[in-house]
Amino acid sequence: MDMELWYTEKQTPDHGITSKIRRTLYHEQTDFQSMDVIETKTFGRMLVLDGMVMTTDEDEFVYHEMLTHVGMFTHPNPKKVLVVGGGDGGAIREVLKHPSVEKAVLCEIDGRVIDVSREYFPAIAGALSDERVDIQVADGIQHIEAHKGEYDVILVDSTEPVGPAVGLFQKPFYQGIYDALKPDGIMVAQTESPWFNRDLIAQVYQDISSIFPVARLYTASIPTYPSGLWSFTLGSKGKDPLSVDVSEIPELETKYFQPELFHALFKLPRFVEVLTQGEK
Amino acid sequence: MDMELWYTEKQTPDHGITSKIRRTLYHEQTDFQSMDVIETKTFGRMLVLDGMVMTTDEDEFVYHEMLTHVGMFTHPNPKKVLVVGGGDGGAIREVLKHPSVEKAVLCEIDGRVIDVSREYFPAIAGALSDERVDIQVADGIQHIEAHKGEYDVILVDSTEPVGPAVGLFQKPFYQGIYDALKPDGIMVAQTESPWFNRDLIAQVYQDISSIFPVARLYTASIPTYPSGLWSFTLGSKGKDPLSVDVSEIPELETKYFQPELFHALFKLPRFVEVLTQGEK
């Protein structure tokens, strides 16, 4: 009888998920983080950075669709898009589903994430070979400082707020994004769990509200992320997503997002909505 | 140094949650199931039946509010309400927040769940002492057969579809509920995870659609339940929840439900909506 291998992520010091794995596929200590690829029985292949699940075959569609399409459909005509982080390529894949896009820049600090994703997650990373994609292995904070007023949409597809991603949850970074956006530009950032990261969500919402004329919070169900509920924070220099005419949103090939979900996303459970009102 | 105790629930054969516990508080093998009360660091006290989390101090509000208020606010004037299962009393607590309610019947097959909940979960079970509550320690299927045309709202607060609750997920039970409801009656059942129980949800939705003129599916985020996303299926002999005027819903003291969430609940992610269309 083979031994049973289980991967356990402590999502908080006292709680986590545990998943049976068929085999470990890859391990590397990159210049920035520890990186593992494992094959789980329930969620397929799983990319793990610094011990935390980043993406899995089975539920990656939720995170990548929901990070991308809400902001992209709020913008009237997104041509030039930046993804900060997101080396697995999933957000870029979703960005490229929008025919208006002429250029999609991926700015990922750890080039090894890109290489390993291409090898082990071709369904996620495959779009990185599209000719509209410009891959920059570089620091996202420096990139936005060097590209003022250039982007229509900027998506922040960061790891958790530890290690290389700490600066991506701080106010100066959001100000930098504001400056890197065109006058009607829109940003969306992944902003952790409404169950486990309430202080962070409230702080980021306050920071983005203080910089952008429009700030909105929404959530999605991601079973391999802490608590299974994940939040995204949108900042807009132009259009408010609440004023989007849903009948004008074209159908894309998606598994989670659909046009009729668009406005419902901003109706939040009370314990989540209070995070936008300065409570925690 | 004390040993570390962790409770692990395999929510599928190959995936689950694990939670550090301060101590075990109670264990009993009842006539129907194994019952444990443990104190976790992240979610407070946790009631575990047959090894599966039923409720916790920290996230119980979601399940109990969302099982209860959607159906209760769809009904124009719910006076007599039945909860099948739900021995912890949480659904009854929410039912009693509606001033129209004259009688709330709890029909729980395992009286020990009621006793232990009263002792270890007073904030959840306390409402069971309200004078409007009629506690029946009995089989839910037999109860509904003996009470035809009596109820305005019936809530099915069952355990998972194994052991004593198997019959509560089958079509004859839903037909029995239909018969136990008054002409404008409404039922809501907890119907498991859209990630892990797709066949079951599709089957239950089809069964309820074939019996009730109106069937609706909605979801809520419950971190200690499998996948973190939970589904509820509503059947109505009268009003369609989609036709409820939200401006007429009074504010209750709730932490998850709020009136402006009401219609948004029925806008489903595409991978969930297909379950209502015969796909899986």
From TrEMBL, chains A, B:
InterPro entries: PABS (IPR030374), PABS_CS (IPR030373), SAM-dependent_MTases_sf (IPR029063), Spermi_synthase (IPR001045), Spermidine_synt_N (IPR035246), Spermidine_synt_N_sf (IPR037163). Keywords: Polyamine biosynthesis, Spermidine biosynthesis, Transferase. Its EC number is 2.5.1.16. Residues 4-237 form the PABS domain. GO terms for molecular function: spermidine synthase activity. GO terms for biological process: spermidine biosynthetic process. It holds the Pfam family Spermine_synt_N. Spermidine binds at H64, D88, D157, S158, T159, E160. The active site is at D157. It catalyses: S-adenosyl 3-(methylsulfanyl)propylamine + putrescine = S-methyl-5'-thioadenosine + spermidine + H(+). Pathway: Amine and polyamine biosynthesis; spermidine biosynthesis; spermidine from putrescine: step 1/1. Homodimer or homotetramer. Catalyzes the irreversible transfer of a propylamine group from the amino donor S-adenosylmethioninamine (decarboxy-AdoMet) to putrescine (1,4-diaminobutane) to yield spermidine. Belongs to the spermidine/spermine synthase family. This is Polyamine aminopropyltransferase. It comes from Marininema mesophilum.
